[in-house]
Amino acid sequence: MEEDKVKLRSQEDQIFEIEESAAFKSQILRSMIEGFDGKEEISLPIKAAIIEKILLYLKHYKDLEPPVIEKPLRTANLEEILPAWDVDFLNLETEMIFELILAANFLCISPLLDLLCAKLASLLKDKTSEEIRSAFHIKNDFTPEEEAKIREENLWAEME
């Protein structure tokens, strides 16, 4: 017997289908499906491209247990701590990572949120504030004097 499917509608009105058991990996989708008896379309305030990536993750981990990610990360090289599928999944533009983090949080998919935050942490790990500003296009709005004062007040944070 074929498993029940759930229909999800993106903010652009694109329809996606996913097996109910995969959708149940999201606490929000589970609650909505159980509330609707799984027969109604679920509208989400999420872009189609983001839903597509989330469904890819949910389908992959439908019958698998996602890896538990050590915190804090011991290395910025995710290939050393994650399965190859996850590393490939995370090969994304930074902007999409941020959008996926928001969507995973909204949908209460904790393992996906942990995975995405690990990717973000790997981009920040062992970087100076200047390198982080450059990587994320953040303007430094401190004067040199203000920055020196902040560094002095927070010396403890830079110690190994």
From TrEMBL:
SKP1 component POZ domain boundaries: 5-62
SKP1 component dimerisation domain: residues covered: 111-157
UniProt xrefs under Pfam families: Skp1 (PF01466), Skp1_POZ (PF03931)
Keywords: Ubl conjugation pathway
Pathway: Protein modification; protein ubiquitination
Statement: the UniProt record of this protein carries the keyword Iron: no
InterPro entries membership: SKP1 (IPR016897), SKP1-like (IPR001232), SKP1-like_dim_sf (IPR036296), SKP1/BTB/POZ_sf (IPR011333), Skp1_comp_dimer (IPR016072), Skp1_comp_POZ (IPR016073)
A GO biological-process term: ubiquitin-dependent protein catabolic process
Coiled-coil regions, chain positions: none
Domain of life of the source: Eukaryota
Entry similarity comment: Belongs to the SKP1 family.
Protein name: SKP1-like protein
